[in-house]
Write a structure and sequence with these properties.
It contains 14 helices and no strands. It has 368 residues and is mainly alpha-helical. The chain has one domain. It is globular, with a radius of gyration of 22 Å. The N and C termini lie far apart (75 Å).
């Protein structure tokens, strides 16, 4: 190893991240043992693992995982509906693959056998999510998202920090800002009542939908060529990532808004990947530790996200590398708006129930 490599701050950052990853694995092992001792189910199901695979696959390609995972966790399908939608999706996927094979074979099959197998794996994962998907209580969704997606995000940070040569000072400053925001944000969110979390996540998802619309409408600034921030821009970037780190604990996700902020500050668009992934890789263990301490997460789905997410990151980053995600973004926009409306509606319904006066009890009436 050369002296320049040893002195490279990015390598030092990756070393610290490796230590954080080991500490986080220890935290998860202890939380799992404690949960099992308390009688919690710690065996991830097919639906949870598939959810981790498909959400982290698209997360690595820049879509983000929090909004899509929230939608899956809130699906309320009866067994009959699960069967029906699984059959419908399977038929649509089969027809789509046949049509692509006939009219545009190079789109999938022209990129090699591994690419084709990856697309098949994503489609199978989507089927498993529809049929075996798990529900998570709204109050525990933010904690479950942070706990479950942390290790896959650390893997993303390792890969993209090595691939994209962002200025170390800029990278480290924005990561520190996100971690500080997450530390204070998680401590607050973990103690919030169910209705406030529903309302907060609903508003956050509407904000995320706005960022998706900006991307689809090509209204993001084109960005520049810089790989570093200095002076006032560095201060603005620090403040922006501080706020995004705090908001991430609500489940809004940091990728889309961080990417837009990087564009607006005139940086090279590729610089967003190590910054947003590095920020999440450091802030999510911090936020997760607070959620674990407050017991504000569900164990089984968290482990499913972790187990399914790690191979998905490696496949997306090292095999697929890039996809035309326009159709996926339209789909994400639709499901995010639906989920956001459902969360706000549930919060308003809970408020109505809480505000309803208790029925008066006549003298001598039986107490239930």
């Amino acid at each position: 190893m050369s002296a320049a490599s040893i002195l490279d701050p990015r390598n030092g950052l990756l070393f610290v991240l490796a230590v954080v990853a080991l500490l986080y694995v220890t935290l998860i092992v202890r939380a799992t043992a404690r949960g099992m001792k308390a009688g919690e189910d710690a065996e991830p199901g097919a639906g949870g693992i598939a959810t981790g695979f498909i959400t982290n696959f698209f997360d690595t390609l820049g879509i983000g995982s929090f909004a899509t995972t929230t939608t899956i966790f809130r699906l309320q399908l009866t067994p009959a509906q699960k069967r029906m939608w699984s059959i419908v999706f399977g038929l649509i996927a089969a027809v789509a693959v046949i049509l692509v094979g006939i009219f545009a074979p190079a789109l999938i099959f022209g990129r090699g056998i591994w690419f084709g197998l990856t697309i098949a794996a994503v489609l199978i994962a989507a089927l498993l999510v529809l049929y075996f998907g798990e529900n998570v209580d709204d109050q525990r969704i933010p904690g479950t998202l942070n706990v479950g997606h942390t290790l896959p995000t650390i893997a993303q940070a390792f890969i993209f920090t090595k691939l994209v040569p962002v200025d170390p000072k800029t990278l480290i400053a924005l990561i520190v800002a996100a971690v500080l925001g997450a530390w204070f944000g998680a401590g607050i969110v973990a103690k919030w009542p169910r209705r406030r979390i529903q309302l907060g996540m609903g508003i956050a998802l509407f904000v995320f939908a706005g960022f998706v619309i900006m991307t689809l409408a090509s209204r993001n600034p084109a960005g520049g060529t810089q790989l570093e921030l200095t002076g006032t821009k560095l201060i603005v970037g620090f403040a922006g990532n501080l706020m995004l780190g705090a908001l991430m604990t609500l489940g809004i996700g940091l990728y889309a808004p961080c990417m837009i902020m990087i564009y607006m500050l005139g940086m090279n668009p590729t610089a967003a990947f190590p910054i947003m992934m590095g920020s999440c890789a450091f802030l999510m263990p911090v936020a997760s530790a607070r959620f674990v301490r407050e017991r504000g997460f569900e164990l089984r789905p968290s482990l499913g996200l972790l187990i399914g997410g790690l191979p998905a990151v490696l496949i997306a980053a090292l095999i697929v590398k890039s996809l035309d995600l326009t159709v996926v973004r339209w789909l994400v926009l639709a499901v995010v708006l639906y989920t956001a409306a459902g969360l706000v509606r549930a919060a308003l319904k809970d408020k109505g129930i809480a505000a309803a006066p208790s029925p008066s009890r006549a003298a001598g009436a039986a107490v239930p």
